[in-house]
Amino acid sequence: MTDLPGIVVTGASGRMGQTLIKLIGDSDKAQLVAALERPGHDWVGKDVGVAIGGAAIGVTVTDDPLPAFAQAQAVIDFTSPAATVAFSELAAQARAVHVIGTTGLTDEDIETIGHAAHHAVVVRAGNMSLGVNLLTKLTRMVAEALDEDFDIEVIEAHHHHKVDAPSGTALMLGEAAAQGRGVSLKDVRDSGRDGITGARKRGDIGFSAIRGGDIIGEHDVMFAAPGERIVLRHMATDRALFARGAIRAALWGQDKKPGHYDMMDVLGL
Ligand code: NAD
After folding, report:
1. Which of 119, 159, 162, 256 is catalytic?
2. Pairing, β 217-225 against β 259-261
3. 38 ligand 1 Cβ < 6 A
4. Which member of 11, 107, 151, 224 has the lowest number of beta carbons within 10 Å of its beta carbon?
5. What's the start-to-end Cα distance of the chain, in Å?
6. How far, in Å, CA of 175 to CA of 24, rounded?
7. Omega of the bond prior to 166 within 30 degrees of 0, cis?
8. What pTM value is reported for the model?
């Protein structure tokens, strides 16, 4: 082992987990010190390099989080809300930076994670890419500049395995639009229209979700007014984009004070 910051990847067999393990393996700034899967998963006990289809790397997949976190400087976590909430407490105990990419967290989950952030650095973002974080900033600016004559709609598309909707990124964009307008998203959110919904309410922020094939992630923010329309768009074509952002966040967090940060902080936007 070198003295590069050590990273644990949770959800090692997942789409993001495997991408992270490959990228950390190729990195000269960080090293993989542990890989975690849920109890009962058939990767547990196997060398993670072999499990992802390559050569052995001497890291055995474990299902026991605390000893894994205790030997690491950062935990990169793209799993499920229940797992992430449990990991936040353990990562704080281990004083490891917790980078959270998991989406679908409830307000209560976020509050629990907030408690952990009193003791350790937590970086949480519904999207870890530079492009989307820039888009978030632009969305806020455009929403601030336009009045409610412009209906705001967030349209997202993802692969058919995705279990939550709207996506974490769509909600992040909706939050930015609401902030730009000086309102709370809770009061104006309009998701999942179906049937006789009645006319659109002025000032609402609408969400639509498309699910299909292997779409990695596409997001449009539409500002539609009588006679004109502005559309801000981001398209992700490679999952490694999110993994690179997560590794950057893990390294950025090393010398920061405990707190709940996001990718805007990491990217200095
Ligand atoms: P996935 O289903 O392919 O992988 C999730 C993995 O987590 C699975 O291997 C599962 O076994 C594992 N897991 C679940 N509970 C666990 C536990 N208790 N301990 C250890 N491992 C556990 O999903 P995915 O496509 O990799 O996405 C994972 C999450 O990340 C989703 O919430 C997704 O929306 C989110 N995501 C976020 C970003 C971002 O930039 N923030 C980008 C892509 C995906």
Report:
1. 162
2. unpaired
3. yes
4. 107
5. 34
6. 31
7. yes
8. 0.91
